[in-house]
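User: Please predict structures.

Assistant: First:
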Amino acid sequence: MGALHFPLLLVAALLFSSSAALTAVEEAEIALRQKLAFENHHHPTDHVHIDINIDIKITNPSLLTAHKALQALKDALYSDPNNFTGNWVGPDVCAYNGVFCVPSLHNETESAVATLDMNSADVAGYLPKEIGLMRDLAVLHLNSNRFCGVIPEEIRNMTELYEFDASNNRFVGPFPAAVLGVPKLTYLDIRFNDFDGPIPPELFLKPYDAIFLNNNRFTSGIPETIGKSRATVIVLANNELGGCIPRSIGDAAATLDQFTFTNNSLTGCLPVEAGLLTNATVFDVSGNALTGAIPLTLAGLSRVEQLDLSRNMFTGDVPTDLCELPALANLSVSYNFLTREDVACSALDRNMNGSFNDEANCMGQSRLAQRSAGECTPVVSHPVDCIKVKSCGWPSVEPPPPPPAPVASPPPPPMSSPPPPPASPPPPVVSPPPPVFSPPPPAVSPPPPVFSPPPPVASPPPPIFSPPPPAASPPPPPPPVYSPPPPPPVIVPPVRGTKYQSPPPPLFPGY
């Protein structure tokens, strides 16, 4: 390998990490050291001296650039205990461990590297920026290694890449925005790393089929753009996300199959729009701080098999329809503050062979393993009304109260002479005004316009039951506007995407 000139601080940390399994505290300390070392945006391989044998003759330009990238990657490793890269020598790039070649998209008579699979190789080091030279690469699997540092910006140059798996490593820094510039990417897996900061809203605007961000240190909230995602799998579990689950989540109903937000710090009410996810088979929001009642709209999850609402602060009843979902195989509402459940829910213990869990609630003696009255009373006596909550509550479906009826003015006393015309009468409510200089309207019509001639002196005053409105009378109020209730869940045909394993093997050696 070439000589590596890493900062002494990082060398010490990295050598320690290769000698024994790390505790969570040690991993966090190493991640922090890396982040502080790279805060000036210097890539770790800026100091790497790469030894490439220029005597090797490779006439295929695609394989030549792949050779350069793979040699840079090999030289960026400081540990390879299984000698995974031991045969990464010589011009036959397609014979290297983990490398798979197929006919080039640009010239079928030449080969190109389409897949680099280093899953579970147990190598340690950095991902060099030369990786971006592999523009024919379609699948890049790096999971279950000890890569650290940052994802290089040059990855955006991999124009054929559609599957990127860097999970279960020690990458650090903010969300690797460079991957958002990879034009054909559809599968993104960066779980089990030390990425932090906010999730960029642009992520959910990309045509990804699967998004795995779980087990990092992402903070802030879930972007509203999540409703625009067309992914079948979205896993954000085990981060430090706060705020509310966006109501836009219901807009992802056409494609979303697995929805996992467990073990974050999400608050507020579970949006009623979640019931629109009619294609979801996995729905998991456990381990948060969600409040209020369980929405009745969850009865729309007609295909859900795994439903986990446990370890929140839900109050009220367990909706009966929830326990009667046709595809349900596992339901957990444990560790909440629920006070009642229907017999249909209790029957799930028998029908689902114990895969229903309602322990640690506030159902009293009717169920086993419930909370004490001392735990329940402070929460149950002050339930959150999701309709009245201003932030993260449910939309009100009640129409606004009608406006007050106008107060009728008393009729004027009889007069021997007609009343003077008003200076500026309001327009008639129903009938249009008569033309100028027309004779006076019948007694039951509103007063004539300003330029109408007055009635004769001997004419009787208008009847009491239809007095002209006084000049100061306010205009009639507009008709009340009623907000329609939200539309019922729309059942759309399922659009099934590929189900990926965790971590996934290469789908196939090539494109």
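Second:
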Amino acid sequence: MVQLTNFVYAITAASIIGAVTAHPGSHDGASAAELARRSNFIASSKRSLAGCASKMKARGFEEKAIARRAALAESIRAKRSIQGGRQYLKARDLATVLATDHASDLEGVTLNTDYSTLFSGNVSCVLQPEVTQGPYYVDGELVRQDIRETQGGVDLYADVQIVDVATCEPVPNLYLDWWHANATGVYSGIVASGNGDSSDATNIDNSFLRGVQPTDEDGVAQFLTVFPGHYTSRATHVHILGHLNPTVLANNTISGGTVSHVGQVFFDQELISTVETTSPYSTNTQELTANADDQILSEEAADMDPFMEYVLLGDSVSDGILAWISIGIDTSASYSVSSAATWTEHGGVANSNSGAGGMGGGSAPSGTGAPGGGMTAPTGAPPS
């Protein structure tokens, strides 16, 4: 097991476009009112963030990010005994989203290329429009960094920095939920049609590729996971959800607090295509939806760029990927979310109102609330 020590603190331009939900049959086009609300949201967020870039640079964010990204990359490569490596840079073109393939525009990168070139970038941060959590959200997940368990796939070292859009300052002590499908397009903890073998009731008790991490003083949470797999009708993505002021329970889960952010992050199509040629991704028989064909992405792709920056740690994706993103949020916001299930030390418990189905042998741990009521905020609902 690879243990991560030197956290990377990444600041890049990033945002999430509006969405309805995230699974088959649940992402119809947005209404005119919803689209108008999103447009106003984007316009106001751009204005409020106009001064953030200069403030963040003046406070030394860029220098700190470069140094820590480099330290983490070298630490991982050393522990994985990876030789070479630095020339295999992949970088986003921040000027566009789907109009380009997001391949590196750097020429002549070698082992001697300075890290300030490899890891520097726009230090601005774009407020991330809220999206619903999707039908496969499970509350009660463990606070842990390594969420792979026994899942196969390409190791992904993910760094997410959360910034307060009102102050341009990092947000410490925010507990970030992170979850996604495995290499063959299946979510743990959910028994439902469209999520793998719906006759396999044991999946309700699984917890792979789900976890929670608190942000540190620099607003950074980090996860060691595997690159997400695809499933029918959606481009490859990861769900995130931020909790402010929750209580950490004795069983290493969280309860209560306020849900201040709900979103998704995405990956370059070229990277997805490369990963999909490797095992076990290549055994996935579900239809692969390209970024350009994803309804959620396509609605406002001209204005938003919700992709993670990344570098390959070695000669191929099989050596692992280091990816990072910075997200601006409104810390005064409060959203109400409902879970499809709750994970407990004895297994999963489905929320009977979620439509996800399945019931494990567990019962909700003390302090986490009812299966469908854990981790809820008292007011509001995120725009869809």
